[in-house]
Design goal:
By secondary structure, this protein is α+β, with helices and mostly antiparallel strands. The protein has a domain of 79 residues: OB fold (Dihydrolipoamide Acetyltransferase, E2P) (Beta Barrel).
Length: 160
């Protein structure tokens, strides 16, 4: 027989090494060829242009450029669609060219429509009729019936 009480071994003292997963280069940052853009477990992010997938699912830049992210619809084998984020590296020359070209403005069309409405109002003021405000019914006053008035009048006379 043992002379000492058995000491229990602590079972929960082990811990795994950290994996440091996540996005390493964000959208708009410069990437050099072979840089790691995303460290991931599985393919949460998909590879786009100028990127490649390593054996541990990390996404690397294949060429120098600017990192970009964009959502894309993918189809599963059973027909369901879902969104995934695609990571790609755009060459710096392309990005600079996009910034230099002014974007088309949709505001002038909206302003033209507003001006047409204003002109229409000036020409025909009766064109737009406003609906009148709803009338709120006043609470009805309680009116006593003539018979009830006579009865109350008789009671008052008797009281006097």
């Amino acid at each position: 027989m043992a002379h000492k009480k058995a000491a229990g071994a602590a079972k929960n003292l082990r811990d795994s090494q950290p994996k440091y997963r996540g996005i390493k280069l964000f959208g708009g940052q410069k990437a050099v060829a072979w840089n790691i853009i995303v460290r991931q477990n599985g393919s949460k992010y998909e590879c786009g242009a100028n990127t490649y997938l390593a054996s541990d699912f990390s996404i690397h830049a294949a060429t120098d450029g600017i990192v970009m992210f964009k959502p894309k619809r993918f189809k599963r084998f059973d027909g369901r669609t879902y969104l995934k984020t695609v990571v790609y590296v755009a060459p710096e020359a392309e990005v600079k060219a996009e910034k230099k070209t002014p974007a088309k403005k949709a505001a002038p069309k909206a302003e033209a429509k507003k001006e047409e409405k204003v002109e229409a109002k000036e020409q025909d003021p009766k064109a737009e009729k406003k609906t009148p405000a709803k009338k709120v019914a006043a609470p009805k006053k309680e009116t006593a019936k003539p018979a009830a008035k006579k009865a109350t009048a008789k009671k008052e006379e008797k009281a006097e």
